[in-house]
Predict the structure.
Amino acid sequence: MVEAIDIGMVNWARALFALTAMYHWIFVPLTLGLSWIIAFYETIYYRTGDESWSRLTKFWMKLFGINFAIGVATGIILEFEFGTNWSNYSWMVGDIFGAPLAIEGIAAFFLESTFFAVMFFGWNRVSKKFHLFSTYMVAVGSNLSALWILVANAWMQHPVGMVFNPDTARFEMQDIMAVILSPIAVSKFTHTTSSSFVMASLFVISISSWYLFKQRHQLLAKRSIVVAATFGIVASLFVGFSGDEAAYEDAKHQPMKLAAFEGHFEGDSPSGLVALGIVNTKKQPGDDLQSFHFKLKIPGMLSILAQRSTTGYVAGINDLVYGNEAEGVMGVEQKIPLGKIAVQSLADYKAAQKSGDEAAAANALQTFRENEAYFGYGFLEKPEDSVPNVGIMFYSFHIMVILAGLFIIVFALFLFFVYKGNIEHLKWLLMAGLPMFFLGIIAQEAGWVVAEVGRQPWAIQDMLPVSIARTNLDSGTVATTFFMFVALFTALLIAEVKIMITQIKKGPEEVK
Amino acid sequence: MIENLELATLQEIWWILIATLGAVFLFLNFVQGGQTLLFDVAKTEDEKTLIVNSLGRKWELTFTTLVTFGGAIFASFPKLYSTSFGGAYWVWTIILFSFIIQAVSYEYRKKPNNFLGQKGYESFLLINGVVGVLLIGAAVGTFFTGANFKLNEYNFVTWTHSLRGLEAAFNYFNLSLGLFLVFNARVLGAQYLLNNLDFNSVPELEDRLRKSTFMNFLIELVFLLVVLVSLLVMSGYGVAENGQIELMSYKFAGNLIANPLNIILLLIGLGLVIWSVYITKFKDANNGIWFGGTGTVLVGLVVFFLVGFNNSCIYPSLTHPQTSLTIYNASSTHYTLTVMTYVAFLIPFVIAYVAYVWRAMDLRKLSLDDLKEKAY
């Protein structure tokens, strides 16, 4: 299918996508969450007519705008990178994957960008009511765009609603509702948006803590905290709920991802969850090494997480790679030969068609259909290639979970003390509040690492490995682009941070 | 009801929708054109501020249209998406680059402590307005002149030119189309600003914008003539009766005549652009943008129709013509096109709220006083 695979190119292209996505994801959660928080502030202003709420709204809106611009800038690249660096992918799944992207443009981006102009420049040009409506539309639009792109991403994790067409050599959509309502799409959307609300709340908490610490803009800071901490605590609980659901779905559809982020090599039942541990990075599938240098395990917990039962069997990496007949687990080792048959029969089918040999074509097609489910595995060289990096996965997952737990406590404390009325005197709490936003970024990025590194080596789970999904480019070209973007994004990030800090130092407008 | 349509009908509907998005994008390029006017038409800081703020209320519409254009091609003609973006790698990457740097420039340009300085961000706007638009023109030009690719039996693309798409800019037709778009965008930019600004505090700017409209139109006219005459005489790739793809003499002249609608749209479009420049320069009119914009959309539609219909190739391969793309072999399936057509019913609502907001926001002309409250 593809003559010589240039792994260097694949890795550069992966690095470029990871770079773009990770830069993009510093800014986007803030947009998704802050847009609601600002809308809540403006609602209070609209209801009370109190000008200090208007100043507060405008202050957060200013920071929102600085952040929004760079989110937009990094976003456009992602859409087109599918085409430039992953063109085989774009062809093979464009019939399905393109749709949510186009819907995102038509149904969400225009909403966002049209009402963004009103939200920012419409204060004296439209009625208060229409302005408030516009602010809500920006929140709705940005979250709708998240919905569509996450539907697209979820489909890569768990491809549904399509069939492979050997004549066009691509997957073709059969059921859009299956794509949109796939359980992975639902849990991905709820988990991602709610965690974005958490991150935006942390942003408000961090900046407000700094003001209280410096004894500046105290009223604004306290009012900001009330709304943000309330929003944050509700969102946090939802993050926990949807995260649990996401792990359960992983167990069903991406068991390798679950096994990797738990460092779970040997399947067992009941299965314990490693709460804390130090991964033995030398450990490889099939060897006798210990998987952890140290670990703290909660008995039976992984069974509950993955199987919703205290005794459920949870397959480990070794089972998934080499198979475990007793537990009914088919291993990658058994899937590869079937995949190779599928790949070869597709080639035979193409060749037979070209030469006009209909009988041979029909024969080859039948063989292909029988082994189609393993098609993607035919491109893997060895079973061990199906295992993502366990160290990265384990730490990313656990950092994310621990931070998520911490955030609930932080929101609760802030809410409690701001109601008690003495928060400005609690230096320890304000100090603790300062770095929360950065921890939020770390939790967000870690979450995406779990989702995306955990999908490796697949571009489309079980169907299409990244080595086939790529564009036929040489690695030098992609490496050049990578460094171009590193330079550009870094310059823009520095600019963003400098501008943001200057505006935060400046603070909201004072009463005239 | 949509599901009962023939596949070919859906493919044609979607090419018309893609053409419409593309044509509207060319109109909305008044933002890019306006950005370049910062450097020759604006003389004072106040004038610059006014121009940036006026464009700054619209740039996202253009940007969003580009993103939607990309998404719509991905969904409706994935083979065009994968072949062109993956193949003509550098030309698209540089276009994207020019839009990334645009996206932050409005917001960051005047902010204190902005790292790259006001001049830095203004140069980003210039690069976007010149290089971005020029290369978009060159890329669209390859729909007519062809590109250097081959597809294997799995429809995977291999590019056969070492410049990976940038070679498009060295073809006189593509280059002329690009330059035509650059100057057309400048004409539209000047017309938009004339419509949008309150000139009481910057009276000289109005005059300069009128002059600029006219001068840029004259330059535009040269490239337009090159493009039009070339189109009438050049050969183009099409599907012959035997199903083979061939280079055909006077292909686009033939396409033009084959459907009188093309000729009507083209003549009305060109007429409107000329009329808009005339009333802007000689009648002191400030509403030229509406005629110039509509004219641009109509001409843009004809450009896309000429390569899309009448058995033409939307993306001809110069090295392996039989793998050339047509709207019939590059599209999504009947099912996906049906779903997407239902989604397209949202477009009128989108246009309605964009128009409503545009009107509500622009009822009063933008003046320096407005910028005291909130400005870029």
